[in-house]
């Protein structure tokens, strides 16, 4: 008994790339990137935040983060700005966040006079509430 193979009886080999697993992996990576990037709002400056023992209640909601480095550099929402453009940058950020809260983040060795000047500029830009970022120290 012999087997006879006809070319007509053989099925053709399908050589297509299945894109479904690739798309699934890319969507998972996109979701992970979106979650991790929205959780951390960094100032963009190298800042050593002062430490405090007392704890205050965290404010939830939208706010504008203004950072001051030891060398006098200022950033608003992570973007470096000059002193001349500071009021406009804070005003635009307050409008885009639909908030009146400004959180100051400064290096512990930055000068108090500089913080007061930035606060005055922020008030002129439309800020009504102010907070100072500090790192909590537990005993």
From TrEMBL:
Any one GO biological process: protein transport
Keywords: Cell membrane, Membrane, Protein transport, Transmembrane, Transmembrane helix, Transport
Protein name from the UniProt record: Biopolymer transport protein
Location(s) in or outside the cell: Cell membrane
Family, similarity comment: Belongs to the ExbD/TolR family.
GO cellular component: plasma membrane
GO-annotated molecular function: transmembrane transporter activity
Keyword Transport in record: yes
Membrane topology: Single-pass membrane protein; Single-pass type II membrane protein
Signal peptide: none
Source organism of this protein record: Halobacteriovorax marinus (strain ATCC BAA-682 / DSM 15412 / SJ)
Residue ranges of coiled coil: none
Transmembrane parts of this sequence: 21-41
């Amino acid at each position: 008994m012999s087997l006879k193979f006809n070319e007509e009886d053989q099925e053709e080999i399908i050589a297509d790339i299945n894109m479904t697993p690739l798309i699934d992996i890319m969507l998972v990576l996109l979701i992970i990137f979106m979650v991790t990037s929205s959780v951390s709002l960094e100032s963009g400056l190298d800042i050593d935040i002062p430490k405090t023992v007392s704890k205050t209640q965290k404010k939830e909601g939208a706010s504008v983060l203004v950072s001051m480095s030891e060398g006098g550099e200022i950033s608003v929402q992570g973007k470096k700005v000059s002193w001349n453009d500071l009021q406009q940058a804070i005003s635009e950020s307050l409008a885009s966040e639909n908030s009146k809260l400004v959180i100051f983040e400064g290096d512990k060795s930055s000068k108090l006079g500089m913080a007061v000047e930035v606060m005055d500029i922020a008030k002129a830009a439309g800020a009504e509430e102010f907070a100072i970022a500090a790192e909590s120290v537990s005993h």
